[in-house]
Design a protein that fits this description.
Elements (H helix, E strand, L loop, with lengths): L11 E5 L2 E5 L1 H12 L3 H13 L1
Antiparallel strand pairs: 1-2
Length: 53
């Protein structure tokens, strides 16, 4: 699968509602850095922690 933002191979692919999007490592890091500036990432980490307990 190709990265959503460039022509590189996707390192990660996510699917929701039958739509699949891939990101290469550099673009994944960029998106995660952007998300780390929001409360969304903290909420997401909390949901993961709750699911793993």
């Amino acid at each position: 699968m190709q990265c959503h933002y460039c022509d590189d191979e996707a390192a990660v692919a996510v699917e929701k509602d039958h739509i699949k999007v891939g990101l290469c490592k550099p673009h994944l890091r960029e998106r995660m850095a952007e998300l780390s500036d929001t409360e969304w990432l903290d909420e997401f980490q909390s949901q993961i922690d709750d699911a793993l307990e």
